[in-house]
Amino acid sequence: MDILASGEDVGGRRLPSNAWMALRRLGWTVTAPAGVKVNDRIVRMAQEQAGRTLRSAKSRADLTAGVLAAWPADPARRTVQEWDAVRDAVPAGQHLPSSVIKSRTRQIAAFARKHGRMPADVFQLEAAPRVARMLLLSACDGQQATIERHESDSRRALLRLQLPTRSDPRSYRDWTWVACPVALPPTVPGRAVLHLPTLRLHQGTVRADLAYTHAVPKTRRTGHTVALGVDWGLNTLLSAGAARLHDDGTITALGSGGMLRTAGVLAKQHRLRRLSEHLHAKADHYQRLIGDNTNHPLTARSLALTDEIRNVSARRSNLNNALAQAAARWTVDQAIAAKASVIYVEDLRSLEARGMGRPMNTRLSQQVRGQITDRMRHLAAETGIAVITVPARNTSRHCPRCLVPLRHRKAPDRPTTPGWKWALCPSCGYQGDRDTGAWQRIAARGLTHQAKTIVDRTNGAMVIRSVVDDLEAEAVITPNTITGRDRSKTGPTRHQTARPTPRRRRTPSPTRPQGPAGKRPEGHAHTDRTQLPRAAHRHQDVTTINKPTTGHRPCGAALGAGFHLHAHASPPRWEETPPDTTSDRGSLS
Questions:
Q1: How far apart are CA 392 and CA 414, in angstroms?
Q2: Does residue 438 sit in helix, strand or coil?
Q3: 339 — alpha (psi -120 to 50), left (phi > 0) or beta?
Q4: Distance CA 577, CA 572 (A)
Q5: What are the residues whose beta carbons fall under 8 Å from the beta carbon of 227, sequence distance 6 or more?
Q6: How does DSSP classify residue 420?
Q7: Quick one: which H or E segment has residue 236?
Q8: Element (DSSP H or E) covering residue 479
Q9: What is the C-alpha end-to-end distance of the chain, expressed in Å?
Q10: Which of 67-81, 126-140, 278-292 comes out lowest in average pLDDT?
Q11: Nearest of 583, 544, 533 to residue 567 by alpha carbon
């Protein structure tokens, strides 16, 4: 594994980027089982998958070796000196998130408790990797598989590949060409160049992970004037807004920003997490009861519980994928609408929440921030927008206008109640939502630290590693000058009158005319009432607007005295009029 990851063979020559070619350069060959006839391209797919697995294990092996070399006295809590030692022992450990080191430390500690000794390396710590059931067609050429678009419909493609007609082909005659029509999603551009996909099985069907290439605008590290700042939250998953860097060096906010609230999705995610923990605890209890007895009555129930755990895990994965896609799409759309050329996201990879209770700490630590950022980079690259991570130090603590520590309160109308949602500045008088001030700080910090943007060699992502004090002093938001009349919401916004409009017209009713003709008096026939009449009874009959159901009791507005969801009309009151000598008609009052 070390030789493969070094990038050079025994003679010092550079190894190819393709894993199967690197394995053959090193002389690591594989052979098909006896009696099975396959061509060399099938062998390439097997070598490509094995080489990718070995290359991916190199980082885990180096991390495990570094943590074992600098093992702390107390695995649950490292000192500052122990943190420095473990980061020096791990390759590129200075920029490695602390959560990754802590998770590997907990894994090693669990191994030590179970076996009574420390593992020697990652090969003892982890089990053998499971090989996925897939076909990496990218390792083949046109003699094994081809793909091309439909002549008239750009949303369809045809994949042709050679597959065996039996599980153990004895000769090349047992191989035949199979045509597989592929429906392309709308996200694949019509002018994109299609590459051979990876075929995998999913719930009894074949899925194709299709790669394509198309031209996109090139992203820039510097030279940005309009940026979108993005702040992470809990119930408010994302808060984002745009800021502009002017020629004189001042930075102003473009509007009040927006928020992506996903409380319902996060609540479902939290319920699935608790269900998964309950099922895992139950499965562990079954395993302790079963022990080494293969004929134990609980064996069947344990297998069923394992399937249920797998289904819950799949539901959690699907929910996380959908949430990541929706959040990334929302963020990129905000940047496009603001005409921003860069998105600055605070780097919370090393966040490990503590001090807020076990449920809240778990919810904060298990958010899919990394997955959202990866999707964000992919979607933003299609429109030429750069995604850069910035340090998250003091983004919510300091005022975006004067960099003075803020005072946080529960709500704007409760300035003396301690909380975390509303921020007040004791120096400049700024007040606003905590997340709004955070995205302003992030956008201003990114715009002033553009020259410090670097490209990470491991994944090609743009990052700002550290904060420079001189540049941070310029990362302030200049308030916009208020033009026209004052539109602040410090007081009532409705027009106030000394005498409100009465609930009913107080103008006296006209005198009732004698005879059949005339106007109907205002209100009821009895105009000497001082208040509106109530309903005759709770459940009126034919005059009820919505018929009550059994056990239903309307509530809210007073019955018969106003319009409401459960509105009830008063029964009509009839008044007898004196007989008319000229007509026998009556009048309705």
A1: 28
A2: helix
A3: left
A4: 16
A5: 242, 243, 245, 340, 341, 342, 343, 344, 443, 446, 447
A6: S
A7: strand 236-245
A8: none
A9: 98
A10: 126-140
A11: 544
Joined together, the tokens standing for residue 583 give 């007509």
Residues forming a β-bridge with 145: 161
What are the structure tokens assigned to 373, written together? 């950022």
* Other beta carbons within 10 Å of 555: 9
Residue bearing the bigger pLDDT, 328 or 509: 328
Token pair for 478: 């200049």
Going by C-alpha positions, the residue among 128, 363, 90, 334 that lies closest to residue 231 is 334
Beta carbons of 165 and 159 less than 8 angstroms apart = no
Nearest to 259 by CA among 183, 339, 331: 331
**30-54: pLDDT as tens digits:** 888 888 888 888 888 888 988 888 8
Q: Which residue has the tokens 């309950």?
A: 278
Say what the pLDDT of residue 178 is. 92
Paired residues of 182 in beta bridges: 157
Q: Which residues of 345-360 are buried (b: 16+ CB within 10 A; e: fewer)?
A: bbbbeebeeeeeeeee
Q: Which residue matches tokens 């395993």?
A: 287
Residue with tokens 């006295």: 73
pLDDT of the residue at 572: 53
pLDDT band (50, 70, 90) for residue 281: very high
> What's the DSSP call for residue 12?
S
Q: What pLDDT does residue 158 have?
A: 93
Phi, psi angle pair for 260, to nearest 5°: -110, 105
Token pair of 12 as six digits: 């010092």
d(CA 521, CA 530): 16
Which has the minimum average pLDDT: 85-94, 211-220, 352-361, 537-546? 537-546
What gap in Å lies between CA 231 and CA 487, rounded to an integer? Answer: 27
Residue 369 pLDDT exceeds 90: no
Which residues, other chains included, contact 436 with Cβ-Cβ below 8 Å and sequence gap of 6+?
A: 239, 241, 256, 257
Amino acid at 461: A
Give the contacts of 62 (CB within 8 A, at least 6 positions apart).
90, 91
pLDDT at 567: 45
- Amino acid letter at 450? Q
- Taking alpha carbons only, the member of 27, 19, 26, 25 closest to residue 46 is 19
**Any idea how long the chain is?**
589
The three state secondary structure string of 375-394 is HHHHHHHCCCCEEEEEECCC
| Cα 129 to Cα 206: distance, rounded to the nearest angstrom | 22
Q: How far is Cα 89 from Cα 65, in angstroms, rounded to an integer?
A: 8
DSSP symbol at 242: E
Label residue 2 exposed, middle or buried (CB < 10 Å: 0-12, 13-18, 19+).
exposed
Using the Cα atoms of residue 268, residue 264, residue 267 and residue 325 in order, give the sign of their dihedral: positive
Strand 236-245 to strand 251-261: parallel, antiparallel, or no bridges (unpaired)? antiparallel
Segment (H or E) for 127: none
Neighbours of 493 (CB within 10 A): 8
Residues 6 or more apart whose Cβ sits within 8 Å of residue 31:
none
Sheet (strand 156-164) strand order:
145-149, 156-164, 175-183
CB 319 within 8 A of CB 265: yes
DSSP type of residue 539? S
* Number of Cβ atoms within 10 Å of the Cβ of 48: 21
The encoded tokens of residue 571 equal: 């029964």
For all residues of the chain together, what is the average pLDDT?
81
The runs of H, that is alpha helices, within 208-262 are none
